[in-house]
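Before drawing any conclusions, I looked closely at one protein's amino acid sequence and its C-alpha cells, quoted below without any editing.
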Amino acid sequence: MQRQLSGRLEYAWVLIGLALLSLVGYVVYAFIGTIVFGLFLYYATRPVYQRLRHVVRPRGLAAAVALLALALPALVIVAWAVALVITEANVVFTNEGSLASVLPPDLIAFVTTSLPDAATNLQLDQLSSADLQTIIDSATSVGNILTTVGIGLVHLFIMIALAYYLLRDGAQLSRWARFRFGDNRGVLDSVMDAIDADFHSIFFGNILNAVITGTIGVFSYTLLNTIAPASVAIPAAALVGLLTGVASLIPIVGMKLVYVPIAGYMIVQALLTDPNMVWFPVAFILVSLVIVDTIPDIVLRPYVSGRTLHVGAVMLAYTFGPLLFGWYGLFLMPILLVLVVNFGRHVLPALINREMVRPYGVDPGVTGRPVDTDVTSPGLRVTDDSTGDS
C-alpha cells in the first residue's frame, strides 16, 4: 500500500513538473525575441567582461561596467542608425520626407485648422464637437506612442538584466547543471562546451559583425552623402548601409554584393553627367572597402575561432529565420541550428551506440590545463569561483 501511494505521489509530482515546465515555456515563447536578444548581448559583451575581471574583482561590478560601457552606448547608436534607416525608407517608399508624413492625420488637421482658432478664442465653447473629437483622437494617438515606448523600455530592461545575470552567474549555473544532470560518459559536458563555442561564433563572430558593419555603413554613407554632387549621390544612403550589414552574413562575397553594384551605378551616372564627378564614386568605394568592410573584419577576426558549423547551413539559418519568425529570427534560427547540430553530433551517437562521447577536436591550449577561473573561461563552462565575490 505504501509503495502504491509513493508511486501515485511520484506521478503527481511529474504532472506538477510538466505543468510548471509548460508555464515556463509559455513565458519564454511570449518573450522569445527579448530573450534571444539578451543572449546576444551576453555573448557580445562577454569578452569585455572577461578582461575586466582581471582588474575589477566583484563579478557584479564587472558585468555592470561591461554592459554600461559597451552594450548600452552601442544600443543607443544602433537605435539612432535604425531611426535614420526608417526616415530614409519613408522618403524612398512614400516620397514624403516631411514630418507630416509620420504624424497622425487627425493631429495634422487639428493643428492646421482648429488649433489656431482655439488659440485666439481660449474658450471651450468655441470648439465644435468635431474639434473635441480630434483632440481626443490625437491624445489617444500620443498615448499609444507613449505606451509603445514604455513597452520597448521594459523589453530593453529585460534584455540587459538577462545579459547581466548570465555574465555574473553563468559559471554557477553551469556548475549546477553539470553536477545535477551530468553523466559519467561526459555527454552533457561535451554538449554544453560545443554549444557555448558555437554560440560564441554565431553571436559574437557573425551577428555582432553584421550589427557593427550595418551601423558603420549607415553613418559612413550618410555623412559621405553630405559632400556628394547631386547627380551622383548615394541612393538611399542609410538603406545601403543597413544592407551592407545584412549582406556581411553571406560567406565569401558578403557586403560586396551591395556596394560594388551601387558603385558601378554611381560611376555610370558620373560618366553620363559629368566625368569630373567620378571622384565621388571612387571615394565611395574606398570608404566601403576600408571603413565598412575591412576594419570590422580585422577587429573581430581575433575573437572568432573554433567554427564547426557548416557555412551553408548558417547562411540558410540567417535567411529563413527572419522569414519564419520575424526580426528575432535572425537570432533564434541560428540557436535552433546549433542545438540540433550538437544534439546529432554528441547526444545521438550515445543514444544509439551507447558509446563514450568524444569531442571532434580539442584546443591544444586547453589540453593538460587545470580548471581555469571565470576570467578566461567561456561563460557557460565550469569555472572556479571559490572566492564567492558578487
About this structure: Residues 50 and 181 are 27 Å apart (CA to CA). Confidence is low (pLDDT under 50) at residues 96-104, 114-124, 359-390.
